[in-house]
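Thread: Newbie trying to understand structure tokens

Hi all, I'm a second-year student working on a class project, and my supervisor (Dr. K.) asked me to get a predicted structure for one chain before our next meeting. I've only ever worked with sequences, so writing a 3D structure as a token string is new to me. If someone could post the tokens and maybe explain what I'm looking at, I'd be very grateful. Here's the chain:
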Amino acid sequence: MSLLRNISDGLRWLFRKERVTQELDEELNGFLEMAAEEKMKQGMGRKDALRAVRLERGSLEVTKEIVHSASWESFLGTCWRDLRFALRMLRKSPGLMFAVILSLGIGVGANTAIFSLVDAAILKPLPVEDPDSLRVIEWSNPEFPEGVSNINGDFNQISGGGVQASSVGAHLYRKLAHEQTVFAALVGIADSNPVGIAIDALPAEQVSLQYVSDNFFQGLGVLPVIGRPFRAEEDRVGQEPLVVVSHRFWVSRLGGAGDALDRSVRINNVPARIVGVAPPGFFGLRAGQWTDIYAPLAMRVAFQPGQSDGAPRGEDDSDWWVREMGRLKPGVSETAAKTQIAGLFRSLAAEAMNLEPKKIPELITLSGRRGFGALNARDASALWILVLLVGVLLLIVCANVANLLLSRSVVRQRESAVRLALGATRARVFRQHLVESGVLALLGGGAGLAFGSVLARSIHLVIESGRDPSSMFDLHLDLRVLGCTGGLSILTALLFGLAPAVQAARADLNDALKAQVGSVMGGRLRLPKLLVSLQIALCLTALVAAGLLGRSLENLRWVDIGFDREKLAYASVNPGQAGYSTERLGPYVERVRQELARLPGVLRVSPVEVRLLSGNGNLSRVSVPGRPSSIEKGVVAPTEAANVNSVGDGFFETLRIPLIAGRTIERRDIRPNADAVVVDELFTRRFFPNENPLGRRFGFDPKDSNRYEIVGVVRDTLYNSLRREPLPTVYEPYLPDVRDPIHFAIRTTMDSARLAQAVRAVVASVDPAVPLIEFHTQNGLIDRLLRTERLLALMSVAFGLVALILAAIGIAGVLAYAVARRTNEIGVRMALGATASDVIRMVLRDSLWMVGAGILIGFPFAFAIGKLLRAILFRLEPLDPWTATAALFALLVVTLLASWLPARRAVCVDPIVALRYE
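---
Reply by user tm_fold:
Sure, no problem. This is what the structure looks like when written as tokens:
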């Protein structure tokens, strides 16, 4: 029979069963008549002939069953009947069904949430055409390249010495893109920049802009859905400023208007025309960072004017700021591409910078499938740790659900035995129980999908807390997330459904049909007890992890930062985005400062270049006259490095940093080429040990080591990290720069919400074209630094509590079932003189055996997870004794409480009733 005919007949049987059955009856009866006629020809009567044929061929009903069972639709029909039977059985136990679905929803949902985050942040390819053919081009060099004054993008020290970076000069990129032949397209991209944008008469607001090459959209295969991409002639200095906006920006800021094309906006107070709208879902080339506006590389001169070594900003060969990404041509090997592009780069760079080719960095190619990484190593590690934690949680859930179903399957032993006695095969019984588990897993998976979606967005908010609005992962329900949820549901169905199904299928007919309730108890509970011990072990592991991460977070929160963090806030503006010149900048800063100082409740205000503990900072080498330097290969040695911060007068008083000696920065020091600086105690200990530092001089360049004079010494403070060992810090007078944002430190008595509103009004009143780009309290900045630790602590504590509750439910359920199974035995014991305390000890003994076995199994796992967390723990050992003791104590208390209820039930048994109990 052909495949199509087989499918057609099967569908007819499913949807027109009566008609197909009638046809089969007619066919079998016709066969019976033909066989009877053959016998009648041999002299038999019709009645005898029919009887003889039936005896030879067997029952027609059995034959019909055999015919149906040989087809695929019969199997489908059996599964359908099993499904209906499973739903009927589950409806009879609504409490059990709710408990199982809730447990599975938590376990599957947590895993789905973490997978969706890991997928968006680490696994998912870029939303471009054929991402596997993309290659990121970077370079490595033994030292900071000669002739290069600035490098944007990634810049990292590599093992074995040397540096690796990702950017080249704009002119060099254009030559390379024009002359190479191994890439179908070589696109140039800059890191995203915050810019101020004003639409119509609305106040300016900050958005994310990325400078890209003219072939950016064509090369990536993401053409605008409205309008057009850039053209080659438009990536030239002096051309009309043009931009392509993201689909998200078009919808949220422009209302999705169809007349957005050719609309004029002001970017950093420079008119620009919109020529296209990027496709929906395209966020750029860095996962977790949405770009709002794209502009040609040459527009950096228009939007961010300034000079660099006499050339327009961005067009100087010593300013390396353009990243490169290429799409391999079909048939071109990785080796051939790397060989050509490396040789071409060496010759073009040597010519452009007038250097010997051997001094030019070596190009390397990396996979561009995921684009440029947005997560730092710490955040990525946090996600993988969460993967481990939710994996442990899922195992606990599966063990708990398996226990519930095992207890239920023991109750149904007699039912399974009756079905086997009536002719059902063990395979059929096994399949029926597995279908019940599958239904529960499917419902739990649905609940998990809903819970996981909410949980993923909540975790995402924690990860992105305090970052700019353009920082956001592309989280949405897609086939990858659905596939993860479906796979987890199938896995959980197998993990918790196999044991009950096997137990039901292996039922001994004689024992099950003859046994009373109390007589089969012993052997039935070995597997549930083992599963409870496994739950205890995994629960102990989760509690130790939660304790370690929670205590580590508390240690970080209580670090002495060296100044008063309470009632301290920072307001940030960027007048350069509104086209301010250097001459206008000073008066603007002073006016904003004065207006902020007039606010009720504001005690002090001071401008500052770097907000302490914001995660940013400036690092410079220190050169002291007569002191030998240990700088090698252009990399600052730790013993020669110092943090540098430019601060206004009143800064130390605003932050309440104690003055140890000398004086602080005063108004008279705020001028070009001022030489007065304040240093911290660590600076004096490292560079002027056992000396009076006041009046001593130093510099940030060996050629000018007498540049600065120390006029004051203040207490040590933490600069940009709570974890790392602090470096010496130098405070120099603050002169604002149009290229950088300006931060105002504000000491106040107001609450942060009212202060933020008042500050926003002040900034708008001074100049509506300059937006308030950020407002943070000092505690908010510290919380932002600790977002990874906070996420891990919150999630691990939540998962630990869920694991503890599930372990308590598991042990209570097994003991309650054991008490119910041993009711007859308990009655006998009490009739023979056993006291209530004897019965309680008997029940608690079972509990302690399970808990003790779980603790013995769990401690090695707890130690292992402590070792795994060592890198992110702060001032804490991997197996901290206090943490382990607290976890053990919590586990013992909860399990004893969970054991007490079944024990009390056992004590309340009436011996007379118990002896009659079955």
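A couple of things are worth pointing out once you decode it. The mean pLDDT is 82. The chain has four domains: 3-70, 131-367, 378-557+788-916, 568-786. Feel free to ask follow-ups in this thread.
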